[in-house]
Amino acid sequence: MGTQIRISREDGSLPCEVCGFPTMHVAQVVADDGKVLGRTLVCTTCQRTRHRPEQAVEPEAPPDEVPAG
Fold first, then answer.
1. Over the stretch 31-67, which tens digit does the pLDDT of each residue have?
2. pTM higher than 0.70
3. How far is the C-alpha of 9 from the C-alpha of 39, rounded, in Å?
């Protein structure tokens, strides 16, 4: 399952330095076993609008040609 980021609904939010909306939250980074590994800041507005980096698409290579012979 991997690590999770949990945002508390009870804690308040702060203005984001990037987008300006008051949607910056302190979130917990939690391991599979429930142990809190640390905390991080997460802006829920920026996360929705951030595009994930697209994988580089390699141009199609011509098929290997075998000389007839």
1. 999 999 999 999 999 876 655 555 455 556 555 566 6
2. no
3. 15
Token pair, residue 7, equals 């945002």
Dihedral (C-alpha) 9, 11, 15, 17: value to the nearest 10 degrees? -90
62: CB partners within 8 A, 6+ apart: none
| Contact residues for 10 (Cβ-Cβ < 8 A; gap 6+) | none
CA angle 11, 12, 13 (to 5 degrees): 130
Give the span between the Cα atoms of 5 and 42, in whole angstroms.
9
